[in-house]
Amino acid sequence: MTSASPASSPDAASLSAALDRIRAIVGPNGLLTAPEDMAPYLSEWRGRFKGNSPAVVRPASTEEVAAVVKICAEAGIPVVPQGGNTSLVGGSIPYEEGREIVISLSRMNRIRGIDTLNYTMTVEAGVVLKTAQEAAKDKDRLLPMSLGAEGTCQIGGLISTNAGGINVLRYGNMRDLVLGLEVVLADGRIWNGLRSLRKNNTGYDLKHLFIGAEGTLGIVTAAVLKLYPRPRQAETAFIAVPSPAAAIELLARLREASGDAVAAFELMSRRCLEFALKHVAGTIDPLSEPSPWYVLTELTAGTQSDAFRETVEAALGEAFEAELATDATIAQSETQANQLWFIREAIVEAQKFEGGSIKNDVSVPVSRVAEFIERAEAAVAAACPGIRPTPFGHVGDGNIHFNLSQPEGADTAAYLARWDEICHVVNEVIFDLDGSISAEHGVGRFKKDEMPVIKSPVEFDLLRAMKAALDPKGLLNPGKMLP
């Protein structure tokens, strides 16, 4: 995909002088200019967005980030902050004209501290999520953010996109896990808001301006994150259900029966499972008979108890009697639980082997998930006969990855050329159900042109006013989120 960057840039001499100043700050290893060195930073993993840049800067401290941003502000050079580059909407990729400098936070990867009594950890933006999870685990604490890219994605990117994942139902989005931030502003000043307080009513809560802002208002360099007690027992179940409506009713019953101990609740269609069984080695079919829909759920408790498992089993028994479930298996070990969760991971991998796949990361109120799936499947089938919907995802919080594989035998390029058209069909259903066209992946370049449509004039004016106030020159991640 190509599109024009709205940002301007200085002449070659001014750019060269700025890069010399930046090199003096970050050192030769902190400035990449060779095409082969920059290549990994200029394309997102799906390959939908590819850009160009005169340089990739890799500062190693907040002070270096601030100094680089100040130089760029003085020279009028736009910048693109980048974390683990796992974005699915092009938010971390520069435009094709090559006017923007990429600022990668990957070298800022220190865990500054863990306070076990306050249940917090302070980490730099470049810390990989898996590393942060393990550091918390070493202190017998839980960092509950968990998603498929956790071995690559970085804390700064997760904050800047307000990432979700499988545990949102129990612990919330990234916004709910952040207590404090350190941010480099558009003029190079550093705002130190690294507070670890749960209560602080002294004016505007500034951190929320930068969470989910995709680097358009400031560059997150560090954060204070909430930790939780580690669960001592987890019950993982794979359940056959007759319909999405039955799954939603089952969710409500499990929440009530367990005292709201449901940590994750994932829905997937039979087609999703068949794709995974066909294409991803190690995928199992856990139940003896096929079902049109499945739920993968995990419930956790703070103590080890036979009574907790009995509660889960009793709730499932009642679901069978109410015809909300037709079959189920509960993992008997951690190994079996991992096998069940591998199915969920394999679904994402398997779709690429079925030709072109048009992706939709959407959300609706949980009570309207079943209605959305029914209406959206009918709408896309009418627009593209033979299309193969593969809905799955975090239905416990209303987030459905409504992905659409091409009709069998279709021309992949021709099908993918209809991406915007097909997404518009899905979005029309979303708008009618008071949902969101971006549940957890962000807006980036991919969905920015929809913003004036989905936001009221007043809300859109407020968004632009914040951008103008915090980035008056428009140099922070220009052309992302706001058209």
Structural account:
With 483 residues, the chain is α+β, with helices and mostly antiparallel strands. Among the domains are: 111-229, Uridine Diphospho-n-acetylenolpyruvylglucosamine Reductase, domain 3; 233-351, Alpha-Beta Plaits; 355-441, 2-Layer Sandwich (Alpha-Beta Plaits), CATH 3.30.70.2740. Helices cover 35% and strands 19% of the residues. It has helices spanning 12-26, 35-38, 62-75, 129-138, 155-160, 168-171, 174-177, 207-210, 244-258, 270-279, 306-321, 334-350, 369-383, 412-416, 419-432, 451-454, 457-470, and strands at residues 31-32, 56-57, 79-82, 101-104, 111-115, 120-124, 141-142, 178-184, 190-193, 219-226, 228-229, 233-241, 262-269, 293-301, 327-330, 357-358, 361-363, 388-393, 399-405. The chain is globular, with a radius of gyration of 23 Å. Keywords: FAD, Flavoprotein. Residues 49-230 form the FAD-binding PCMH-type domain.
Quote the average pLDDT.
93
Largest sheet: 8 strands, antiparallel
Query: Would you state the CATH class of the domain at 111-229?
Result: Alpha Beta
Total of DSSP H or I helical runs spanning 4+ residues: 17
Distance between the termini: 16 Å
**Helices and strands: which structural class?**
alpha+beta
State Rg: 23 Å
Domain FAD-binding PCMH-type: 49-230
Keywords: FAD, Flavoprotein
Pfam family, one: FAD-oxidase_C
GO molecular function: catalytic activity; FAD binding
